[in-house]
Amino acid sequence: MKALRAAALVIAALTGSPALARIEITLDAESLNGMLASMAPDHVDVGLAGGRGLTIRMQDLKVTGFDPAAGPHGGITTALRLVVPDLGIDVALAPRLTLDLKDAGGGRKTPTLRFDKVMLNLPLTGAIDIAALLPPIQLMPGNGWIVDSARGSVRVKPRLTDAKTGANCIRLGLDLEVATVPAR
Fold first, then answer.
1. Sign of the four-CA dihedral 118, 124, 126, 132
2. CATH number of the structural domain spanning residue 95
3. Residue 10, pLDDT score
4. Pairing relationship of beta strands 119-122 and 108-117 according to DSSP bridges
5. I need a surface site. Which of 73, 75, 90, 126 has the fewest CB within 10 A?
6. Is the pLDDT score of 18 beyond 60?
7. Mean pLDDT, to the nearest integer, of 81-88?
8. Radius of gyration of the chain from its Cα atoms, rounded to whole angstroms
9. Number of domains in the chain
């Protein structure tokens, strides 16, 4: 993200009118692990019939590898500890996440990691896939941010152009729309 802000500041310093910058962000396992620690929810509340519910806790989510063949944009393999206190479940799992491009409105897309298959073995029912109960994880802000520069505030809006998974990273291609923020 520091490289992203630096590129925006350079463009803003060179021009006072709206500008466009093209950048590429590379997310390796270490970068993704740092992001997942703060972006992935630590639990999901699941409503059941009769007004009851249960909580699924996701702990220690870590990237273990990259899978370029997982869907059109690839994906990642992970490890996590899944805990369902109400059912006495505490298991280590190795789910796959697929890199999807979600529509963010206005012709914009945002890269999202979606749980592809999360098999949980239950004593009475056997193996069930709970991937649909786990929320997708958005990888970048959809609306942009304001950066303070020497010449005043600058609005930076990312527009995703490409997202691909390689053998050891995810690459996001972005156009950055940079414009000065009118004074109030």
1. negative
2. 3.15.10
3. 52
4. unpaired
5. 126
6. no
7. 90
8. 20
9. 1
